Amino acid sequence: MTKTRLFSKQKRLWSGALALVLALAMLLPVWGNKAEAGKEGVFLDSNVYYTLEKVQLSAGSDKSSFRFTVELVNDSDYVVDMNQYGVAVRDDSGNRYGVELTEKISSRVPAHSAKQVKYSAKLPASISLDQLKVEIYAWDMKVSGYIRSIGMLSVAAAAEASQTANPSAIVALGEVDSSYATDALVNFELQRAYHAYAKDNWNVYAEMTVENLGTGSFKLPSALQVGLKNEEGLTFSGSVVHGGDVMLLPHQKASVVLEFPVGDLSLNGALSIDFSKKATTTSANSGSNASTGTTGTTASGSAASSSGTATVLESMSINGFIAAYNQGELQADSSNRSGLTATVESVNVSPRADGLYAESVYTLKNDSSRAVSVPALTAFYQSNGSTLTVAAEDSASHPDYLAPGESTSYYYSGILPTGIDSSAVQLVVMEAKSASVSVPVFVANLPADAGNTGAPVEAGSSVYATSIGKLEIHLNASYRLKSGTGDDILMSEVQVVNPQTQSVKLPALYGGYYDGKNTVDATVKYVQTSAYINAGQKATLYVFATVPYDMEMSSGKLILGEGTESGGTVTKKKEWLRVNYMLQDEAISTVTLNNTWMVSDPSRVSTGAVVEVKTYESLTKGDSSETAVVRINQKNLMTRSGNVIPYSGYIQASNGEVYELTSSSVTTGKLNKDGQAMITLYATLPFGVLDKNATVVFGPQITDEAFSPPHKYQYAVSSNQPGPLNGENWVINESIFPFNIKIGAINRTYTSSGYAFKFRYMQEKLSDTLHVSTNRFLYFKVLDSDGTVVKTVEIPLEGTGAFESSDDTTVLQSLTVPVSDIKDSDAFMESNTIEVYEKFENGIRYIGELTYGS
Questions:
Q1: Contacts of 482 (CB under 8 A, 6+ apart)
Q2: I need a surface site. Which of 199, 212, 550, 634 has the fewest CB within 10 A?
Q3: In sequence order, what E strands does 715-810 have?
């Protein structure tokens, strides 16, 4: 059974007596009569139902903003909790869109009452009202997906009731001035209304189109008076601040802007604009010709002062039209009077030490079929309900004209005082109509929930206008890297998506960081082999700057823009964006031994893993240092050959000192698909600091000073011992990535060339990894009974050589000590020890000891 039906909000009265029915109806609460009979509703039960009251659909540059109000009518005897139910939007193709509350209210609806809730949703730009329905559902743990649909409300039906034509009024100018012809009629139609602080006062601005309905040409008469009347009957005299001197041709339209100084007038309740014949005698403040743009302006916030009585000829109600631009949502100019549409594409508000930093991206687009001139715009931020305004600076340059389909974006920013309520902040865009007159053409509240964390807050699209077209730009992460030089590196990863239908080439780019006090220039690098980004593809930009280690800069603004490059230096040309950044410790991911990570940048698509961590002693006897070695194995995942990726990083020791990691491995060459290579990083530190509190931070190298994406490894030596020996007579069984080394029992025999040591040896290579043998050896020390080193032998750890064996074949290897190398034959003959080490270019690591009979 469907839960959606037509209804009357009055309850049925089951008495048969008409008089009793009428008497009881008079006792019903007022809320029960809010809706007209025949309105559509979704019933939760016979006494509780939802209705759709108001709808509004505004098309943006690439999305539509859908706003609507639902009302829950509770005609029951119990409280209804709206948290038990949800609201969604569906289109006629079955797609489901989530919604957001645009106000904070209590979810409890008392018995015999009603409550309205406002929602918004982002929808495809091409969608229309007749394609939409609002779904009411219940949370139900017993059904799949936990959502049980209750019913649908038709958006089209609600639109017919809630959306009306723009207010208009037809004025006979002959009633204003008898010199005008009897058919001198003009139609005033309201396009938009704003509340803005300008000229040291709060004003209401009304943009009108005025159409000459007559057969002759004329200007608006100077005796035409305009006024704004509130619900208390007070009239605030206004003036035509733009367009009053335009010659109106027959059946042609022109634009005029009316300004009403209202002071602290509340804009709630009924509001109307009156068109009057000016009184014959007016005060000194009221005076002059409408054609000069100064019709009867009075002192701000006061009723019109006159010794006569103005005759009201026509009036238009503007109830809700100012409020429609005062809901805390971004608004767009859809009137398209000049071929330009305007949208606010992103908004950031963030607290800083010196105040509340506000920024907005305001975009003009030419949707007409002809070139359109770009107006002269300025902007400011105002705090609604106060006299505070702050200039909004624009960091971009703009063309004089826009071709069809082109756009230009304004990057407005300003700093408001600390402690101001961010939900009361509004962006006001002003257009210079003449050298002396500027009027608001756009007012929008900033999101009430912006700026709580300092992290980026985006409203609408993240698309930015650049010289190579529109790009989707997202700040993925920001973090801080250390170095052994006393400087740190601020690093940000920025994702760029090309949403266009053709490929674009990235220009020379520059960056920067600003924390409200300090500004530092930054370098911008992209690691893909080509500067081109194909349609729909992504690229990662790395923005990094060197700062002293004691300069905090933990949050602020990340700056990105384009420039021109000469000799490796980028000269700034045009700023693209400023977005909030906040350094994130979690952006440096923690990895453990053999834990694989992914590098997804173009031309670097690969995996990596820490495969071995060892501590080596110094090669210099008595040296009080040790060397930490981290080995990283990478695998190329691209479908074609890829470069070996160099890695770099540092170790932060337990005492807080930072030591840079050096790469000893070959980091050039190509890898086939699925090919592997090993990178060895090491640092030499004083004894005792390599404990569990030491941390290794590393990543794919971008430049000598920067690497990304970063990873950290809590220092712990890896044992990686092979499995059990299954009873075989092996003495040493050691994992030395990518080999397993096994050495068995040893014996010494005399030969004509000296003493030969024979032992069982097996070397298993577990991975076809390149660059594993660079400066890496098995190192044997033959000792006499006094501990004197008689002979040392180095055998390279590689896939070929004298110590190689096949996969599962045990062979006897030999080590010969010539008689000439023996200085003390008695001590040598009394000895029975050979020490075995792994030797690395900067250190040596003990593996085990071989003993033998004499």
A1: 488, 489, 549, 650, 652, 658, 697
A2: 550
A3: 730-736, 739-751, 754-765, 769-770, 776-783, 789-796
Alpha-carbon span 298 to 629, nearest angstrom: 82
Q: Which residue in the block uniquely carries the two structure tokens 């335009």?
A: 246
Scanning 229-296, the segments in alpha helix (DSSP H) are: none
- In terms of phi and psi (left: phi > 0; alpha: psi -120 to 50; beta: otherwise), the region of 516 is left
Closest by Cα among 651, 517, 490, 510 to 583: 490
**At which residue do the structure tokens 């909000």 appear?**
9
Q: What is the C-alpha to C-alpha distance for residues 494 and 13, in angstroms, rounded to an integer?
A: 66
User: Phi-psi category of 556—alpha, beta or left, where left has phi over 0 and alpha has psi -120 to 50?
Assistant: left
**Rounded Cα gap, residues 42 and 535, in angstroms:** 45
Cα 89 to Cα 56: distance, rounded to the nearest angstrom: 13
pTM passes above 0.90: no
At 327-338, the pLDDT tens digits run 323 333 334 446
120-143 pLDDT tens trace: 787 886 788 889 999 999 988 888
Cα separation, 151 vs 135, in Å, equals 6
Q: Are 649 and 713 in contact (CB under 8 A)?
A: no
Structure confidence by residue, pLDDT tens digits, 532-548: 998 888 889 999 999 99
In whole angstroms, give the CA distance from residue 294 to residue 304.
14
Q: Give the span between the Cα atoms of 790 and 825, in whole angstroms.
A: 10
For the record, the structure tokens of 234 come out as 């007070």
The amino acid present at 134, given as its one-letter code, is V
Other beta carbons within 10 Å of 701: 19
